[in-house]
Amino acid sequence: MIRPLLSVLLLAGLATPAVAFDYPTAARAEYVFTCMAANGQTAEMLRKCACSIDAIADRMPYDQYERIETVMTMQQLAGSRAGFFREAAWAKELVATFERVQADANLKCF
């Protein structure tokens, strides 16, 4: 009797904890360092910033995060090539997606 119940729980995803998308430790650390630089170098801010990247990782696969990070970096550069990343509709949508996910993470963590 336990086997069928276990099978049902496994299929329903209830028997195992939810796993966040796997982000490299360096990517998580970079996010936390940048977040702390903008918000304060305190232990409380360390916890909040770490919570924020964990919440982002719960909602967004790393390859998408990496694309968005690249677009946002390119948008900060000067020149016509970087302008492409500022003006392209697909780039704007990627950034808007990240901003929504990050806003939700901030509501959860800050």
What this model shows, in words?
The protein is an all-alpha fold. It has one domain (9-109). It has helices spanning 2-12, 25-39, 43-59, 62-75, 80-87, 89-109. The longest helix has 21 residues, at 89-109. The termini are far apart.
Task: Please supply descriptive tags for the structure shown above.
110 residues, mainly alpha, 6 helices, globular
Q: Structural class of the secondary elements?
A: mainly alpha
Please give the count of helices. Answer: 6
Task: Write the H/E string, N to C.
Answer: HHHHHH
- Would you tell me the overall average pLDDT? 87
Identify low-pLDDT runs: 1-17
Number of strands: 0
Task: Indicate the proportion of strand residues.
Answer: under 5%
Report the radius of gyration as a whole number of Å: 18 Å
Task: Kindly give the count of domains.
Answer: 1
Shape call: globular
Biggest sheet details: none
Helix content: over 70%
> Ends: how far apart?
45 Å
List the helices and strands and how they pair.
Blueprint: H1 2-12, H2 25-39, H3 43-59, H4 62-75, H5 80-87, H6 89-109
Describe what is shown at a glance:
The protein is mainly α and 110 residues long. Helix content is 78%, strand content 0%.
